[in-house]
Write a sequence for this structure.
C-alpha cells in the first residue's frame, strides 16, 4: 500500500492536501533536494507529483528514478503557470524510443 | 568487435556456424520485440499526451480558483481549512509485464467517511472559490493518477526500446557480419589446405613415378 506525495511551492500544492495527498512545501533548491531524496528513498510513495518549477531545480536527482518502477515522478504545472517541462518529458521519451519526435511535431 | 583471429579448424568452423545461427535467431526475436514494444509505446504515448493536456488544463483551472480563494481569505484561515483532510488516499500498485518490461498498474482507494465528501472545512468561514478549487482538483484526480501510471510506463518502455534497438543494431551490423567473416576465413583456409595437400600428393606421386621409370631404365640398360 503506497501513498502519494505532492511537492512544490505552497500556493501550488496546498489544494492537494484537501484530497488527502501528502504535501511538502519547498521553495529553495537545497531544501527541495533534501525533501525529494527523503520522499523518493522512503519507498512509501508510488507517485510524487512535483511542480515544474521545483523539478527544474533538481532535474538530475529526478532522472535517477527514471528507470525504477516506483516512484513515478510526475511534473505538474504550478500556480505561476505552465513552463512546458512536463510535456517536454513526454517528448523526450518519444525521442528516446523512436529516434525522432513523431508525436508532437504538429 | 575487434577482429579476432580464430584457428582455422573444422571444430572452430562448426562452433562459429552455431554462433551465427544463434545470433540470427536472437536478432529476429529482438527485432520482433522491438517492433511490438514500439507499437504499444506509440499507443500509450498518444494517451499520455492527451491525458497530460487534460490534466494541465484542469490544474490550471484549479489553481486559478485557488489564487482567488487565497486573495479573499487570509493565510492562516486558508491553512487551517486545508490542514486536516477528511479524505485519505492510498494506492495499490501491481505490475504488468509488457514484452519483458514491468510497468506499474495503480489503483487508488479513497478512505472518506462519505462518498464525495471532500471538503475538510466548514463553509462558514471560507470562500466559495476554495470549494471550487478543491472540487476542480478532486475532479481531475483520477486523471492525475492515470497520468502518473501512463507516463511512468512510457518512460520505462522508452528505456527498454532504446536498449533493444541497440542490441538489434549490434547483432545486425557487428556480430553477424563478424561471424560470417570468420566462417568465410575458415572455409577458405581449409579449402586452401586441402588444395595444398592434394598438390603435394600429386607431386609426390609424380616423383615416385619418375623414380620408378628411372629405375626401370637403369635395369634395361
Amino acid at each position: 500500500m503506497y501513498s502519494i506525495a505532492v511537492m512544490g511551492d505552497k500556493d501550488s500544492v496546498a489544494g492537494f492536501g484537501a484530497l488527502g495527498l501528502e504535501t511538502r512545501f519547498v521553495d529553495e533548491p537545497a531544501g527541495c533536494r533534501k525533501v525529494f531524496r527523503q520522499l523518493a528513498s522512503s519507498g512509501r510513495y508510488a507517485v510524487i507529483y512535483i511542480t515544474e518549477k521545483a523539478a527544474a531545480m533538481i532535474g538530475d536527482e529526478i532522472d535517477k528514478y527514471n528507470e525504477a518502477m516506483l516512484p513515478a515522478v510526475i511534473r505538474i504545472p504550478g500556480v505561476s503557470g505552465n513552463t512546458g517541462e512536463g510535456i517536454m518529458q513526454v517528448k523526450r521519451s518519444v525521442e528516446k524510443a523512436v529516434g525522432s519526435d513523431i508525436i508532437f511535431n504538429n | 568487435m575487434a577482429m579476432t583471429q580464430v584457428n582455422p579448424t573444422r571444430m572452430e568452423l562448426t562452433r562459429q556456424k552455431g554462433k551465427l545461427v544463434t545470433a540470427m535467431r536472437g536478432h529476429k526475436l529482438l527485432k520482433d520485440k522491438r517492433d511490438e514494444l514500439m507499437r504499444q509505446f506509440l499507443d500509450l504515448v498518444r494517451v499520455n499526451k492527451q491525458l497530460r493536456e487534460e490534466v494541465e488544463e484542469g490544474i490550471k483551472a484549479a489553481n486559478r480558483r485557488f489564487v482567488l480563494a487565497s486573495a479573499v481569505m487570509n493565510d492562516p484561515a486558508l491553512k487551517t481549512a486545508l490542514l486536516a483532510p477528511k479524505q485519505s488516499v492510498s494506492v495499490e500498485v501491481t505490475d504488468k509485464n509488457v514484452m519483458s518490461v514491468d510497468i506499474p498498474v495503480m489503483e487508488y482507494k479513497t478512505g472518506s467517511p462519505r462518498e464525495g465528501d471532500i471538503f475538510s472545512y466548514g463553509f462558514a468561514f471560507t470562500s466559495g472559490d476554495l470549494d471550487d478549487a478543491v472540487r476542480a482538483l478532486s475532479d481531475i484526480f483520477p486523471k492525475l493518477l492515470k497520468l502518473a501510471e501512463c507516463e511512468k510506463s512510457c518512460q520505462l518502455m522508452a528505456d527498454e526500446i532504446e536498449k533493444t534497438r541497440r542490441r538489434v543494431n549490434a547483432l545486425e551490423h557487428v556480430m553477424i557480419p563478424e561471424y560470417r567473416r570468420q566462417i568465410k576465413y575458415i572455409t577458405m583456409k581449409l579449402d586452401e589446405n586441402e588444395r595444398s595437400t592434394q598438390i603435394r600428393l600429386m607431386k609426390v606421386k609424380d616423383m615416385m613415378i619418375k623414380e620408378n621409370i628411372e629405375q626401370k631404365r637403369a635395369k634395361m640398360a
Q: What stands out?
A: Helices of chain B lie at 10-72, 75-83, 128-220. Chain B touches chain A through 63 residues (CB under 8 Å). The radius of gyration of chain B is 38 Å. The mean pLDDT of chain B is 87.
